Amino acid sequence: MTLDEDAQARFLIAEARRATALDLDCDADIPVLLDATLDLTERVLAGDTALLPDLIRFLDDPEMERDFMAIFNRTGTGTRASAANDLVAYAAGFTARMMAERTGFGSVPDPVNEARAWIWDYYRDQSAFLGLAQSQ
Length: 136
Prior knowledge:
7 helices; mainly alpha
């Protein structure tokens, strides 16, 4: 079954939400930051494209204060928190890229532009690592 882009974005957001609901064995603020990013992602997907720059900043913040890489630097690799961070980043990036293209937003940073449906395999593996993998 092939999903249209909106359905794919909704699926990715739902999968990321399932991940952030798990015990991620990390600092308490990380799941809060990830859930806030998913809230923002849902609002952009619903059409609030004025928030698109904020969503893009999660994927590529020049100051690296509250973005995907800042969280990655705190969680490392191979952890439940890093897997959840990856899933949130993919959902956010996929949605940001799709909405930027639809609205003529202009150029987006590489982490946003690279969030395409065909790179799902890595994220499916992260989902499986967390025990969440769904077949879609």
